[in-house]
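Subject: Sanity check before I submit

Could someone independently write out the structure tokens for this chain? I want to compare against mine line by line before I put it in a report. The sequence has 310 residues.
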Amino acid sequence: MVLTMIKRLYIFKIFLFPLVVFAQDNLGDIQTESLSRNLHIISGAGGNIAVLDGEDGVFVIDNGMPFFLSKVVDSINNINPEPVRIVFNTHWHFDHSGGNDFFGRNGTLIVAQDNVRKRMSSKSFSRLTNSETKPSPYSALPLMTFDKEATFHINGETVSAMHMSPAHTDGDSVLSFQNANVVHMGDLFFNGLYPVIDVTAGGSIRGMIEAIEQILPTINDSTRLIPGHGPVGNIDDLRTFKLMLVTVEEKILKLIEEGKTVEEVIAAKPSKNFDESWSWSFMPPDRWVSIVYDSIVFPEKALASDLSGN
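---
Independent answer below. Compare away.
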């Protein structure tokens, strides 16, 4: 059944291929890591997946790309073979929600912030890839949504979900596992990598910086941070990520204020001090600089996106 569903998902999602986020070098090499007795991470299937298991049922945060659904399901079953009770999407991108259709059709409750369902329900257009995304099937949509905050009391944990102001997208949520002192940050944190910022869906580099500034006072030196992409990190890794964002933003903003075009800004190589360590296959320096430029020059357009591709 899983393989049949993958085939159907692949046909439905093939138009999204330009949006695939190759943030892990081991994409397709599925790895499972345990952070506590019942909290685990599955990586290699797109965005990092968290699994909280226990007597109350399996609680999954994000579910990777549809191409790796079978491997993700096998990995979850190896942790706990019981049906998944809840899936939470940190945002709408298909490298984090690519298994929604499968889980929704099998009775899993899908939860996300209000804007996630709006984005997934509507046609949209990406400035980054110059491509259109069609609405997701009804079975893939979150059945339960919230505005600002949601709390789950499950498997001996209190899991607090908080919606951030537009940053990576306009529907980003951060989830805190209070007992384990673990925070899943979704794509608000790319550990050691230039992030993807979806300007057309409300994202901006300034929003990313402000989200991190909001999160930093709520964590401590012992907090483990699950990034959307990259290895598990800590508060120092997040500070380093913020420093990179702030430095690149300042350099590009100065060039914009001097009247430089996007081509001239790219040619000036404002991110050159970071490129060797932070760039990767999907996010080479020129694309990264272009995204930051767009997020500064077109914020009103990005934030006023009508969710219909216009």
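---
OP: Matches mine. For the report I'm noting this point. The chain has eleven helices and 14 strands.
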